[in-house]
Amino acid sequence: xxxxxxxxxxxxxxxxxxxxxxxxxxxxxxxxxxxxxxxxxxxxxxxxxxxxxxxxxxxxxxxxxxxxxxxxxxxxxxxxxxxxxxxxxxxxxxxxxxxxxxxxxxxxxxxxxxxxxxxxxxxxxxxxxxxxxxxxxxxxxxxxxxxxxxxxxxxxxxxxxxxxxxxxxxxxxxxxxxxxxxxxxxxxxxxxxxxxxxxxxxxxxxxxxxxxxxxxxxxxxxxxxxxxxxxxxxxxxxxxxxxxxxxxxxxxxxxxxxxxxxxxxxxxxxxxxxxxxxxxxxxxxxxxxxxxxxxxxxxxxxxxxxxxxxxxxxxxxxxxxxxxxxxxxxxxxxxxxxxxxxxxxxxxxxxxxxxxxxxxxxxxxxxxxxxxxxxxxxxxxxxxxxxxxxxxxxxxxxxxxxxxxxxxxxxxxxxxxxxxxxxxxxxxxxxxxxx
Length: 435
Ligand code: UD1
Known about the structure:
29% helix; 23 strands; UDP-n-acetylglucosamine1-carboxyvinyl-transferase, Chain; binds uridine-diphosphate-N-acetylglucosamine; four-stranded mixed β-sheet; single chain; alpha+beta
């Protein structure tokens, strides 16, 4: 069993390089399936999610070559099957995205059920409804989704919520459907804009209009692309929170200000500091006490739900009451139980605390939390429940007095590259034990 042993209460100082964005790379790899020509992607992270997506593509006929440590060439001149093997069931959110490319090239697709972090039910009804609207027939069996389409036709699709994955499913399907597709209430996260940029390089015609509207004019054929992945703004925020929570001072090479503006504003409001350079961002503690905050997670350009967990830990170090209202996922505070065992004072509520009522009003979900700081945390043994919560446990362990043992590290290695090496490079007492 592999686990991390972390001795806390040491400030993080030094420099690290942020990796390519997890939430973009898998989609970029899937986009390559839309063409018979080779595609070259650089700034590729060596993380579990990327490897699983590459394996999935290989299982249907792609050939993959690592050209150097972080660049891949992926070619799918011919798809060998329309069935993505069942062994990919329950691992990540990607199988459903393969449906569009498979339908265009094979006329049918079978993909296993989805997995990913256990942060609520995470249905894919919006994806399925969108595929049906574009002309596919979709059937759910015990183990997979089966879909078939003789031809895909553009349509008007209004999303009930600006879902990231559904917007991507539609983009990857509608770009080669006949006629025009309009997505209303689309997600417009930077990772989605980068996917649109790739599709444009491939020959697609896609316009991002006002009011979350995306207009896709279908084309008959797409060609190969060369693209450098944008950097991971969730990883940047995670290290930033770790630096400030430990009274440290770090430079994150490759961190990009665009896409992080809401995080940076929020950080400054609580008294955390940063300085933007051409090649990255320095995050540091001023030594002054952190002040509490009210904040709501939201879709882009709001405060990302994936920044919530590291920020909660940071707020355990602010003086006073902070209120966090999670409006994207109904069940994303479960991880705080372990933090209270470390000494954090965190209370969960079913009400929409603070600003505006959200979709989860009057439903039975603990989706608001109040954090009473500042608390001294002590090291304990913890088991990671999901990817983003995992990094917040690491930050908690880095702050805490004494030694923490963090288990379930496979979750974290699915989304964060070389976490132990990066932490050690910042002076953390961080050991990886493989017993
Ligand atoms: C992606 C990200 C994840 C991030 C999330 C929101 C990847 C691999 N994962 O997840 O890190 O936290 O965006 O920024 O990119 N929903 C439905 N039905 C659907 C689809 C979504 O009800 O068919 C709901 C979800 O349960 C959730 C909300 O919509 O409450 C947002 O989900 P979505 O944006 O689709 O998240 P993912 O694409 O799965």
